């Protein structure tokens, strides 16, 4: 008896292959080399400060976690990806930190250094952390612990924040890839100063991603 695959037309075989392949949004993969252009100090964690055991991540680790986050939140715009990458690189000290140590705000962290309020919201929307976050909601450090122990959640906070907490006009302005759009994102959504240090990381991210 001949195999059914020997008699099916080519178009049918292609359809079978397509249906069996996982659906992945185009343009969501980021590489370690791209990240190293933005965060050249993330090659290794050999010189991690003693105050931050276990917090450091390399460019390779960041690339895997960020690609997962971009897929999860369907962040396909290079301009938006660059904004997220620039933000988390700056806020985490090129991935050396995922807690606020200076001045040390309890519960503030993940790679974009979200406030405890946003971390509680974020954890409540992740199926795997929802119940635990509710149980420890009065202990912001405990909520943060749930998020930073899983790279996907730790690095995914920036993409989550942009796609769910920033208003549509901010996201639309950011889509243009302009400096004014980036400034609006930092000032009107992140709620901080669009200073030169942050701008430099964003500019490198734009170059790295071709935004």
TrEMBL record:
Keywords: Signal. Residues 1-20 form the signal peptide. The keyword Signal applies. This is Lysozyme-like domain-containing protein. It comes from Aspergillus pseudoustus.
């Amino acid at each position: 008896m001949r195999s059914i695959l020997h008699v099916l037309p080519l178009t049918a075989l292609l359809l079978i292959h397509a249906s069996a392949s996982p659906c992945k949004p185009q343009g969501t993969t980021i590489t370690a080399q791209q990240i190293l252009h933005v965060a050249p100090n993330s090659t290794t964690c050999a010189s991690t400060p003693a105050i931050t055991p276990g917090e450091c991540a390399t460019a390779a680790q960041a690339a895997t976690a960020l690609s997962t986050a971009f897929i999860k939140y369907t962040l396909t715009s290079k301009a938006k990806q660059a904004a997220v990458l620039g933000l988390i690189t700056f806020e985490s000290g090129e991935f050396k930190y995922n807690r606020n140590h200076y001045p040390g705000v309890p519960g503030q962290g993940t790679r974009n250094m979200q406030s405890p309020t946003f971390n509680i919201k974020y954890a409540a929307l992740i199926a795997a952390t929802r119940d635990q976050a509710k149980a420890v909601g009065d202990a912001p450090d405990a909520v943060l612990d749930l998020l930073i122990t899983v790279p996907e959640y730790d690095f995914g906070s920036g993409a989550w924040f942009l796609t769910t907490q920033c208003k549509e006009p901010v996201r639309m302005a950011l889509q243009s890839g302009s400096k004014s759009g980036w400034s609006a994102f930092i000032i009107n959504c992140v709620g901080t100063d669009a200073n030169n240090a942050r701008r430099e990381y964003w500019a490198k991210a734009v170059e790295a991603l071709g935004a």
